[in-house]
Structures are given as C-alpha cells and as structure tokens.
Amino acid sequence: MKRVRNLTQLAALAGVNPGTVSRALADSPLVKRETRERIQGLARDHGYRPNLMARRLRVQETGVIGIVVPLGHEERQYLSDPFFMTIVGCLAGALSEKGYDVMLSRVIPDDEDWLDRIIGSGMLDGVLIIGQSNQFDTIERVAAGYRPLVVWGAHTPLQRHCSVGVDNRMGGRLAGECLIAAGRKRLAFMGDSSAPELRERFLGLCEAAQAAGLAAPLELGAHLAIDGMADEVAAHIDRVREQVDGIAAGSDLIAMHCVAALADRRLVVPRDVSVIGFDDVPLAEQTVPRLTTISQSITTGARTMVNLLCDRIAGREAQSVEMQPFLVRRDTV
C-alpha cells in the first residue's frame, strides 16, 4: 500500500474532510464509531502517524515537564547522587504514566533569572524542582506568577510555592532518639548544614540530645558533592573518633562513607560507633552492614508531586504536602 504522509491525503483516501480525520484519530465521540474505526484502520494500514508536535502547538501544549535540580549551595553535586537518581527515576515514571515526556536540567544558578528563563522557554507544560537549595526567594518570586510549579523541599508558613517533602526536623529528632535509645551519648551530625533541609535535620538532632540531657552534638561539615566526600568524611572520623559514639548523617551516601571510614580504622559498626542515614535510597539496604536510616518516602513523595502538578496544570487548587518521616531500623545502630 502507498504510504500516507499527511492528514489531507488520509482524508482523500477516506472520503471525508481533514477535520473529521483529525477528530477520528483523536478518538472524538463527535465522529461516529464506525467512521472512527474505518479512519483509524486506514491510518494503520497506510503507515500514517499524526504529527504530535503540530497538535501540541495548536492546543498550546508541549507534553513535556521540566525536572530541575538547582545546586546553588553545592555546585559540585551531580545527578549520580543516589538520592537524585532515586527521585528522578520516580518522577519520570509517574510522569510517563500521565503521558508526559521529561526534560532534565541540572542548574548552577548564576543570577536571579535562571528559573524565569526555564519557564519562559515555551518548551514546558510545568516544572518540578528537586530541592530548594539556597534559591528559596527565587522560587517564591516565580511561583507568585507561575502556577504549574511544584517543589521537593521543606514547607514554611506563608510560602507561595507548592512543596512536597518531609518534616526534616522531626526526622533529625527520630535519628537522635534512635541513637540515644541504643545507648549512644556522644553524638555528631555529619553533613553540610548550610543546606536548608540538612539544617533542620541537625536542629532536630540537637533537640533530641537536649531532651535526653546530653551535650550538644558536634557539627561536622561534610559536603554533598560525591567527589571528595570520602576523604572529607575520613578526615572527620580521624579527628573525632575518640569523642563520638553515634553519628547522624545528613544523607544515606554520607552515612555509607562514615561506615566505610570506620571499618578502614578497624572500628566496628554498630559495636563501637552507631551510624544512621537519611533518605532511605534503595542502596541503603544493600550495603554491609545494611544502613539504618530515616525514610523520606521518596516514591510516595514523587507521585504526590506529579499529581499536584497535574492538578495545577488543569487549573485546580493544589496545596503543599508535608509528609512524616519514619525510622527504618537495619544493622548500623
């Protein structure tokens, strides 16, 4: 059969006008079922595929959602970080189920207009941002005039932008209470507390220590960048290993490096030092020993973000969601 290359040729073949063909291929109930099936069959037989881009331009939709990772606080962090890989995979899967394609961007904010350029590109139906980084004010400003925007991050009273995330301070308290219940009295936090979410985790750990009558935890500023993290964590372990018997890490990856550094120094986890992570990425239960951690419910959170974004694209109201973290007890505490 001769291949049909455009809507007009298919309409001539079917003996109807191009508008009827367009509606039939869109499965519109305005076209009789028999006619729809005949036109759809002709399209299949003659190898015709509708031009989705042209249709999207007509209806002013792109079918593409932007997933943006702003790294204002940590320029050396990469998408190969287990947390980013996990949440990006969950978001992409949920968006695919909704019929959307994905455009992924890792952004080092160089001015206040970086987000304006993304949403003004005309390439996206909506934007999902992973982490507020140190860009809270920029996200707030853009959210005031751009509705299809949902952020993975902390929720604060009166914020404009729609966010999904856990109560990080409660997560820090849970980590502290877990370490203290295991008999640990000399606590430390390993992570870069200049990041808003990690700062809340550190403050929650401090609250747990204070409630138990313990000294304030040491703050050990390990960056989130993968390159150099192992050396930085190892240097901290060398400096404080006689002063600390319980470590709450700002992420699972930092916790894994803690466990490795302690093992390299012939310190047994959890016999000598207990370690607890934060995130519950899939890799956490594959390490040896398996990592005790605080779960952010990443899969649930990602699906919630996509559902809220779809509501906003459709013009419906969608409010921020703050999930409750929970302890996943394994072998490192």
From TrEMBL:
Pfam families: LacI, Peripla_BP_3. Keywords: DNA-binding, Transcription, Transcription regulation. Coiled coil: none annotated. Residues 5-59 form the HTH lacI-type domain. One of its GO terms (molecular function) is DNA-binding transcription factor activity. It comes from the Bacteria. CDD domains: HTH_LacI. PANTHER family: ALANINE RACEMASE, LACI-RELATED TRANSCRIPTIONAL REPRESSOR. This is LacI family transcriptional regulator.
